[in-house]
Structure formats: structure tokens, C-alpha cells
Amino acid sequence: xxxxxxxxxxxxxxxxxTKILTTITAIALIIxxxxxxxxxxxxxxxxxxxxxxxxxxxxxxxPGWNLFQPSTTWGTWGYLYMPLFTYSALKDAWLPVIAERxxxxxxxTLRVYIRPQAKxxxxxxxxxxxxxxxxxxxxxxxxxxxxxCWDYVEYIKAIGDKVVETRIKDPPRNYFSFIGCALGLxxxxxxxxxxxxxxxxxxxxxxxxxxxxxxxxxxxYKLYYYDTDRVIYARVDDWWGKDIFGxxxxxxxxxxxxxxxxxxxxxxxxxxxxxxxxxxPSVWTLFTKGIGTWYKSKPYYVGSGPNFLYLNLxxxxxxxxxxxxxxxxxxxxxxxxxxxxxxxSPQATAVAVHHVFEVYRKYIFTDLCxxxxxxxxxxxxxxxxxxxKILDDAGIIDRxxxxxxxxxxxxxxxxxxxxxxxxWTDWMMxxxxxxxxxxxxxxxxxxxxxxxSVWWNNIIxxxxxxxxxxxxxxxxxxxxxxxxxxxxxxxxAPAGNWERYNNKEVIPLIDNAASKAYxxxxxxEAIKKLQEIWLRDLPAIPLFYGAHWxxxxxxxxxxxxxxxxxWWWPAAPWDAxxxxxxxxxxxxxxxxxxxxxxxxxxxxxxLIPTSIIWQQIVRLVATPTPTPTPTPTPTPTPTPxPTPTPTPTPTPTPTPTPTPTPTPTPxPTPxxxxxxxxxxxxTVTTVVTQTIERTVTTISTMLSTVVSxxxxxxxxxxxxxxxEWTTTIAIAIVLFIIGxxxxxxxxxx
Length: 749
Fold this sequence. Notes:
It is a single chain. By secondary structure, the protein is α+β, with helices and mostly antiparallel strands. Among the domains are: 13-41 and 726-748; 85-208 and 601-622, Dipeptide-binding Protein, domain 1; 302-543, Dipeptide-binding Protein, Domain 3 (Dipeptide-binding Protein, domain 3), CATH 3.10.105.10. Helices cover 29% and strands 15% of the residues. The chain has a 7-stranded mixed sheet with strand order 9-10-11-2-12-19-13, with helices on one face. The longest helix is centred in the first third of the chain and has 29 residues, at 13-41. It is globular. Residues 96-486 form the Solute-binding protein family domain. This is ABC transporter substrate-binding protein. It holds the Pfam family SBP_bac_5. It comes from Ignisphaera cupida.
């Protein structure tokens, strides 16, 4: 601050100096009072017993709460903004949320009916026009709920206030993607985003939606406070859904943003966090401390989609299928998963079908495994002798005695790399073990561990030899989804086909399976043909199932779902479908009661099995309706707005199916985290880089909190003092000005 004071040379210098001093002091005191007010608002009492603390869902400063952003803050999807339906992978069923039901009016047109009770947090009703306009904006900015759905749907339009109609695009008539688009959309409030669209155009994706006073949401939580180191949500006690679903048990959700997994896991172990979505080495050693996982024994976690060893098929070394099959038999699966992955997943099947879930086992065709693997077990065994024989029989031998094999054309299998991002220590160890065994069979391989961004770009650009990577996850479309992800030549990294498999033979099979998803006979037939091609060509090598990181601490909250009490699926805090967990947990010492609505409709709940979708389509296909195909309503035309500056379509950000990242890429170091313990009051200094204009409360992330053992009934309130260093520095400057003014006056006297 520079204060320039001009004073005339008049009599009574002392009087003038006094006036100057008084003026400076007054200004300084005004600033001090204003800043003190802001400082006071930064004080907050956090009721620990009412708060679920989450770790592992946010690793950097919150980017915003706008669904049209490239990246959103944890909790935006699922807790602040809810979908029409939430899918439960455990029960292969759909939970009506904003919508109450759906129906096919013909085999190609699906109508969704929005609940009459559904309202935005500002009291305005949620309508079909909110859904329609949200999808309109998504098509323009190429980001947000329903992104990419235009490849599978002809239109999504409102039929009056409460009916949304979606029609499948034919071709490709992909029912899997169509249903996901029609049922899984997250609406935004049209009365909020339409004026923004008219003003900002495609720059709406830069809107952060970070003012709690102005935020309009559909979910049971709302932003209460955030800074660079924490996010806090408060329950909406007059939430529209409370008469249908009740209210979530925690009044607050809080996520302290730690710099790495070890720091977060330490807080979790101490009871400072309740719900973890992090990689925890040797998690079973924490079971005596009130920590639990889905299973009480190996694999502890439920596996998600298969993780693969991808071989770049554009490289000469891997274009020979004998090389790929030999590598598959050389991988030390058991040692790798026990030593590097702590037994958190069994070996994946050779056909990439998830065998842990019984519902998918019918798609493992043992006759094909017998034909191509010589066993009905459908797993690759670690057999170095067999690997060598496969290479020998294919004429891939060491021709010059240097210990490295050459292809029949003389190309040596040397100077190859196997790569994962640096810091992913479990995957790094896997790479070392695989490389060692490949050298034993005459393939020269070394490891390469670049930063994630380099590794990711190498995959996108095809500049790699071998990488360990994921697929698109599992859902109601498994195993079709994994075969499409790996084998469809129309896809390219990062959206799939990382290995560059180019076999047009699979295209009609992939499309036919999706278009006949409602017909079990036709679908199974197409899947079996795809599986035979998979075993014949082995485009990628299945390794294990990516663990779905889900752990809980029972110090403050109990009733978490687990394998002994599977009332909801083991959703990690970062999963948008985890919100029901917060409705079924209870404070330690109380009796948890899972909500009735998490049951399927035949048991009195709200969950609609996916099989009902297929049954509706089958009935309509059998008795086609002669009604003419409805003409799509044009995309809603918004109020005239300034023509926005064209924005380049962003490259999709990778969303790894729970990728094991024991040591993630370093994020900004968070400020000290409050120690939260029973009957203790602590004062914590937190660095805040912005003006605090809202009350602080600690709330937790976007998923669930559940517990299984009662440890304590102690009630505790923790007072957390959040100090704004900007404010503190400003106060220091003000005091310095006052001191300077006094000294100046004394000197003049």
C-alpha cells in the first residue's frame, strides 16, 4: 500500500502531523476490522460424529462443480448432481433416482418419466427440459453427461414437463450404449445454465459453479466450503427425495486433500478418515484396528475390469501370434499378483471374462479353451518350457548364439521395453518380473517408467512396445464391452484398442452382439464367435482384475456394506454410484439399517433388473407396433446469444478403472491436517489462497461410508481454525503502516 500525502507548508506542523497520523490510523483500522471479520468467518466447529471423512477421491485443488468442465471436483457427480438412474453392478439393476420409471414405446424408442417430487435445491421442479437442454450443451462443448451419446442415439428430447424420449440410432443400433445414455444422464438446471450459455457459449465449460450461495443442485448434499486443501459438503435437509429415500446419515462429507497415498492412509489408519479409495499395502494388517474391506480374506477387494499386457501390434516383433502366445505363458502370474499386488486380485481368465462374478461365468466357453489352450480351466499357466516350444515350432529361434531369438525373417526380439508410469510401484514390480521371465525365453526386454503424462501420450501415439493397462471396466454390457474395447478396429487410444488390433472380421460380430443384446441366443452366439477369435489371435494378454479400492473405518461409522452384508456394492469414494451407502450406515453405537429401496422390485425395493429392459424389447420385437416412427424434435434453440469463439474439442481425459497407484504423481502439498480424536479440541493452521467468505465445516467426499464393528460411542467436536495467510499478511501490513506513521510523526516532531 502506498499512501501519498501532500501537505501545505503552514503553521502548526504538529497539528498537521497529528491529522495525518489520525487519517492513516483510521484507514488502517478500517482495513483491520474488515479483515478481522473475514478471519472470524474462517473459524468453524466441526462435529466429528456427524461427518464422514473421505480419502483418495481428490488429489489436487478442486477444479469446480460444473458438469461441463473437463475435470470436476469429487462429489459433483452423484452427491450434488444426481442421474436419472443409478446402476448397481452387484445386482445388475437400475435404481430410479430423478426418474421414477421407464418404458419402451417401440423397440427403438425409450421414454423416461421424471418423479413429480423432483426439485432443484432452489425449489424449482426438475423437468424433462432440464435433461434436453443439458444434452444440447453437451453436444456443443463435447464434455459432460452424455458425451459421445450422439453416436448411439438419434435424439434426446422432452415430451412435456416430465417425459424424456430417447431414440436409438440405427445403425449401429447399439443397445448397450443406448440404454446407458438414456438412463444414465445427469441433468443440470436449465434455468441456471441457459442464461450462462447465452452469455458464454462454449466457454460455459470454464464456469466453476463454486459459490455455495448460488449453487443449484439436485442431490442430498451441497457445497459448504472449500479451499485448495479440502472440500466440505453439507446435507440438504429439505432435499426433495427425503420422502422416497430418506436422508443420508452424515450431516457433512469432508475430503482433506493429501499429497500422496501414504499420508492419506496414515490418516485413515488413525481414524481421521472413514472411507478410503486408495491403494493400501497389506490392508489385512489393519483389520484389528477397526478397518474393513469387502472380503475378510484374499482378494479383499472386488475386481473391476481386466487389466492387460498390451503388445503394440504395429511393431514387427509382436505381429507373429506365436510371440504373443509365448509371452502369455512366460508371465509369472502367481508370484506377480502375490508379491507385487498383495493378492488383491486373482489371475484373470485367458478369455478376459470376469469369472469372480457368477453372472458372467456363462460367457466362458470351456470347449474353446480346450481347443486353444488344451485345458478347460481357461487360464494361462506359467510354463517357460511351453513358451519356448511355441517359439521353436514357429521358427523363432536364436540363430547367432547371442541368447536372443530372431523371427523367421531375421528380426531380433531385442531392445524391447515394458512400461508403466513411474510411481506405480506395484505395476513397476510386475514389469520387472515379466521382463525377467521374457529374457529367460530369449526375448530381450527392459523396463521403462516415465511420468504418467509421457506414458499416456506414448499410448495415444503408439510409441511403445508393451504396457500394462486397463479396459473400460465391467457393467451390464460385460463381456461385450471388453471385447469391443480391445478388439474393435474402429477405436483408437485412449478410447480403446490400445494395441492397434486391425481385424475387420470382428466388426459385424461386435455390432450384431450389441444390436441383439435383448436376445440371449443371438447374443451368446456372437460373444462365442468373438471369444474364439480372441483365443486364436490373442490381441492382448489378460493379467488380473483391477481392484476396486474400497475400505472403511468403523471408529465413527458402522454398517458399511461388505461380503457378509452385501446391501450395496463396494463403491469407492470416487465412484458416482456410491451415494446410497451414506443412507445405510449409522453412527458407532447405533443400529444401522440398510434402506429398503436398495432391494430389487420383486423384494419390495426400487431396483429394476436389467433383464426387464431386455424383456420389454423382446415383447415389442415380437409384436411390432404399426405406429409410424416419430419425427425427432429439433434440438432446443436457446435464446439468441453472442457467437462464441470456437473451442477445439479436447482429447478425452483418461479415467482409469481403479488403477493401482500406490504412489501417485505428486500433487500440491496440502496444509496440515487437523487431528480429529474423541473429546479433543484442536486448533489447526491452514493455508488458504483465497478470501474465505463462507463458514467452514468438514464434510466428506462423494461416496459411501460404512462400517461393520462398533468401537466407540464417544461424541466429539473438533474446532478447526482455518487461518487465511492472505488475511494475516494484510493485517501485518496494516500494523506496519501504523507503526511507520507513528515513527514518522515522532521524527518530524
